[in-house]
């Protein structure tokens, strides 16, 4: 198994380091080099990759805004000289954050993690294909709580709330705390779940009504709507432009 990779960085030196490291890793194939995020958008419109090595501070369009603009996101490893973007990056479900300059051993750890996530995604997609022929009520998701893995019926989840490197999975006014990112849940949950805030994903079936910038659930719980997610109101109400 090989991961097709794209390097997106405005520094030629960074391209050289990653390319050199990749030569020693049999499952990494460098499929392209882009020196601007805008150039990468064009590249991805024509070719598919499995993993992007992404810098953050680049001219015109920075790496995180580029990542937000992608409709179909490959796996991403951030390669940056600035550590202050780490929390924001992980909220966008990147699989690792390499702080420049990084050594081969640290690079190897990051790409091994990417490979594991890639294999996990492929397995989940296969499971999802099987679940399409089963009833929705039977769909389940496994979450880790403390040292246990708990199986939940997906339709019982009312909403999910980000809490640093953890996510609160809310069900019946109680929550389970699991060490995952909100973005990883967003990729796994069915279409009935939608992101309404940078820190919240909501199950539409539990919506009662909207009031201002707040969604009130059928059990009385209130969930905020983020300022960048206003269009979600139309989706909730099945409205058209």
Automatic annotation (TrEMBL):
<feature type="modified residue" description="4-aspartylphosphate">
    <location>
        <position position="55"/>
    </location>
</feature>
<dbReference type="Pfam" id="PF00072">
    <property type="entry name" value="Response_reg"/>
</dbReference>
<feature type="domain" description="HTH LytTR-type">
    <location>
        <begin position="141"/>
        <end position="239"/>
    </location>
</feature>
<protein>
    <submittedName>
        <fullName>DNA-binding response regulator</fullName>
    </submittedName>
</protein>
<dbReference type="InterPro" id="IPR001789">
    <property type="entry name" value="Sig_transdc_resp-reg_receiver"/>
</dbReference>
<dbReference type="Pfam" id="PF04397">
    <property type="entry name" value="LytTR"/>
</dbReference>
<feature type="domain" description="Response regulatory">
    <location>
        <begin position="4"/>
        <end position="115"/>
    </location>
</feature>
<dbReference type="InterPro" id="IPR011006">
    <property type="entry name" value="CheY-like_superfamily"/>
</dbReference>
<dbReference type="InterPro" id="IPR007492">
    <property type="entry name" value="LytTR_DNA-bd_dom"/>
</dbReference>
<dbReference type="GO" id="GO:0003677">
    <property type="term" value="F:DNA binding"/>
</dbReference>
<dbReference type="GO" id="GO:0000156">
    <property type="term" value="F:phosphorelay response regulator activity"/>
</dbReference>
<keyword id="KW-0597">Phosphoprotein</keyword>
<keyword id="KW-0238">DNA-binding</keyword>
<dbReference type="InterPro" id="IPR046947">
    <property type="entry name" value="LytR-like"/>
</dbReference>
């Amino acid at each position: 198994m090989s991961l097709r990779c794209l390097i997106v960085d405005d520094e030629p030196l960074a391209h050289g380091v990653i390319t050199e490291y990749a030569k020693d890793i049999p499952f990494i194939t460098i499929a392209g080099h882009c020196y601007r995020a805008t150039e990468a958008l064009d590249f991805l419109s024509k070719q598919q990759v499995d993993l992007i090595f992404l810098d953050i501070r680049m001219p015109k369009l920075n790496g995180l805004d580029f990542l937000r603009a992608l409709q179909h996101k490959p796996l991403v490893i951030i390669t940056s000289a600035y550590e202050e973007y780490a929390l924001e990056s992980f909220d966008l479900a990147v699989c690792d954050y390499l702080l420049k300059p990084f050594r081969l051993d640290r690079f190897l750890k990051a790409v091994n993690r990417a490979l594991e996530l890639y294999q996990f995604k492929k397995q989940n997609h296969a499971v999802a294909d099987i679940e399409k022929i089963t009833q929705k009520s039977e769909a389940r998701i496994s979450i880790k709580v403390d040292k246990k893995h708990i199986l939940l019926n997906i339709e019982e989840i009312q909403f999910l709330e980000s809490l640093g490197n953890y996510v609160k999975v809310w069900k019946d006014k109680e929550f389970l705390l699991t060490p995952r990112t909100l973005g990883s849940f967003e990729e796994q949950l069915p279409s009935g779940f939608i992101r309404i805030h940078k820190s919240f994903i909501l199950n539409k079936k539990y919506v009662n009504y909207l009031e201002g910038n707040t969604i009130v659930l059928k059990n009385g719980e209130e969930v905020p709507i983020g300022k960048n997610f206003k269009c979600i109101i139309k989706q909730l109400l099945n409205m058209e432009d």
